Amino acid sequence: MRDLLAGNTVIPVIVIDRVEDAVPLAKALVAGGLNVLEVTLRTAAAEEGIRQIVAQVPGAIVGTGTVCTPEQITLSEQLGCQFMVSPGATDTLLAAAQKSSIGLLPGISSASELMRCMEYGHRDFKFFPAENSGGAAMIKALAGPFGDARICPTGGIGLHNVMDYLSLPNVLCVGGSWVCPAQMVKEQRWDEIEQLAREASALGR
Length: 205
Known about the structure:
This protein is of the alpha/beta class. Helices cover about 40% and strands about 15% of the residues.
């Protein structure tokens, strides 16, 4: 996961409500410099949307988000995704991920959860929900006992606070939905989303 995410400071967290939005949204984000895309498995349109992005958007590195079950791990493999992101991490999910051909960024919100994921070989983690779980101060504190861990905080992050996270040495990247606001997607304002992606891709560089 670290090699895959290196150099990508912002990972868009995408919710696809309409399949027809998937490809133009992904193209706008990639054109703006954000080529690592997390597409959440929260909607009925997600599966087909991911399938179309993988097939039709050159340069996109596509992963599934909101992965909560072994079945969704299998689905992620079948869709041709290159990574997976979970909001939390159970032993059942972590055991299934060990057998997967693609990497998992497991979700944590405490030191104990991080340690459990480390027991399964993970060293990179999603910190979720970031703002409600102690924010940048919590992640900074985790750097002491877990110096080799790298974290991707997600949840409540936007332009108002993103640099609080990206300035931390143990933050690998941040996940955020502010680069593809639901209203802009609904209105198919792809040029504006591309501009938001361009601004986000320049952060922390």
